[in-house]
């Protein structure tokens, strides 16, 4: 006794995604009424459905079942021949089983998707976009890529052809190059398209795209530059009108008191030295008179230096365009030196000009300044300027502009004065 199973047809072409039907017949060649379980085996078992899955067959009878094969429309549906088997096993007699075989041929199919990324691009100059080509078929894909645009936009791809394996995606770069830049004004929109033509496909993919070419200098740039300029001007104004005067005033206040104390100590020391010198001269004279009274010859008295405070004032007046006005000359006495410690320049009218304090024996001036820089301000030397015996001290004024009067008639000359304070040290 034997049980047999046959399948028809034994060879069948299958299109992925499309169901194919086969028929399986099972002969019960036993002496019992038997139920046979039908199970698909082989590489195509996962695609197969059997209805009914169990056949009850009388002895010597044949029953049929329908076999439906649906190959998935996926890239992993390999093209070519795939074996399919239907195994029939008796329920009551498990040792009784038979297999019917068929050969399926999986046909190739093509399915392609193409997408432009991004579809709307923004930029100011050269811009790169990408084309994604997705091969969803089960055979390799070969496609050509080309672009179309107007004369204002250049378009190029690094390769005109692309090959994509089943189940894979390839990205193709597309370079967009505007012919001209947009320096100012509204943005310019360029329309273009990328054409993807797969081999063997009648209709190519036409992927439309837009490139929005924006102006090189954005609108907010000018506002930012203006804001930065205003901030810079504000910082400069803050420095010149608030911080700098405050710092200079604090510096003057910081050194004013120590300088005043030093001047007072120097004046006191000079007075004490002068008093001591006079007392020494008087004592020496008394000693000499005593020696003469007893008939002895006195020693000559060595003179002791004497310090005298002096104030020298020069009044100057000069017209615009004329020769500089020169003051009288103050001559340092014999056997003396003049040490200048302070000067006070007075410019009551606020005139513009140059005042020079000079020593006739020296080519370079002692002090030169613009009188407009002073409004009755003291100028102090920590180390005194010294003039020797016979030196001639004088001042000059070169008027550049006469300031308009606050009240009264217009003046025709610059008027200024300088007060010089110092000490004359006499050695004999």
Shape: rod-shaped
Q: What pattern of helices and strands is seen along the backbone?
A: EEEEEEEEEEEEEEEEEEHEEEEEEEEE
Structural class: alpha+beta
Which strand order do you get reading across the main beta sheet?
2-9-8-4-6
Largest sheet: 5 strands, mixed
Number of helices: 1
Distance between the termini: 164 Å
Question: Top keywords for this entry?
Answer:
428 residues, alpha+beta, 5-stranded mixed β-sheet, 1 helix, 18% helix, rod-shaped
Task: Walk me through this protein's architecture.
By secondary structure, the chain is α+β, with helices and mostly antiparallel strands. 18% of the residues lie in helices and 48% in strands. The protein has 1 helix and 27 strands. Strands 2-9-8-4-6 form a 5-stranded mixed beta sheet, with no helix packed on it. β8 and β9 form a beta hairpin. The longest helix has 75 residues. The N and C termini lie far apart (164 Å). The model has no long low-confidence stretch (mean pLDDT 84).
């Amino acid at each position: 006794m034997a049980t047999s199973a046959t399948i028809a047809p034994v060879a069948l072409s299958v299109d992925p995604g499309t169901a194919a039907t086969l028929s399986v017949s099972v002969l019960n060649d036993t002496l019992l009424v038997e139920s046979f379980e039908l199970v698909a085996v082989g590489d195509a078992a996962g695609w197969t459905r059997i209805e009914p899955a169990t056949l009850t067959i009388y002895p010597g009878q044949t029953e049929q079942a329908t076999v439906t094969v649906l190959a998935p429309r996926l890239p992993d549906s390999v093209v070519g021949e795939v074996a399919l088997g239907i195994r029939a096993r008796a329920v009551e007699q498990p040792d009784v089983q038979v297999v019917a075989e068929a050969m399926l041929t999986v046909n190739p199919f093509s399915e392609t998707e193409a997408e432009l990324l991004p579809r709307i691009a923004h930029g100011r100059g050269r811009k790169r976009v990408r084309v994604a080509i997705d091969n969803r078929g089960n055979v390799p894909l070969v496609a050509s890529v080309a672009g179309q645009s107007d004369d204002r936009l250049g378009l190029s791809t690094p390769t005109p052809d692309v090959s994509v394996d089943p189940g894979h995606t390839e990205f193709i770069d597309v370079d967009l190059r505007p012919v001209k830049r947009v320096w100012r004004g509204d943005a310019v929109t360029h329309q273009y398209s990328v054409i993807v033509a797969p081999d063997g496909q009648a209709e190519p993919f036409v992927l439309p795209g837009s490139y929005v070419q924006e102006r090189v200098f954005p609108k907010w740039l000018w506002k930012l530059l203006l804001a930065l300029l205003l901030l810079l001007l504000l910082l400069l104004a803050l420095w010149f009108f608030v911080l700098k005067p405050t710092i200079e005033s604090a510096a003057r206040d910081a050194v004013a008191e120590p300088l005043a104390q030093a001047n007072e100590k120097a004046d006191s020391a000079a007075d004490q030295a002068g008093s001591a010198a006079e007392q020494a001269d008087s004592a020496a004279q008394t000693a000499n008179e005593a020696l003469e009274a007893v008939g002895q010859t006195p020693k000559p008295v060595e003179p002791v230096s004497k310090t005298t405070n002096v104030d020298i004032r020069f009044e100057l007046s000069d017209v615009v365009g004329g020769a500089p006005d020169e003051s009288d000359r103050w001559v340092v006495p014999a056997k003396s030196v003049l040490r200048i410690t302070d000067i006070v320049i007075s410019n009551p009218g606020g005139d513009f000009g140059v005042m020079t304090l000079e020593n006739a024996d020296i080519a370079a001036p002692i002090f030169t300044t613009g009188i407009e820089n002073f409004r009755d301000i003291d100028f102090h030397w920590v180390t005194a300027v010294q003039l020797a015996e016979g030196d001639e001290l004088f001042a000059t004024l070169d008027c550049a502009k006469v300031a308009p009067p606050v009240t009264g008639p217009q003046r025709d000359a610059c008027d200024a004065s300088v007060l010089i304070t110092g000490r004359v040290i006499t050695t004999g």
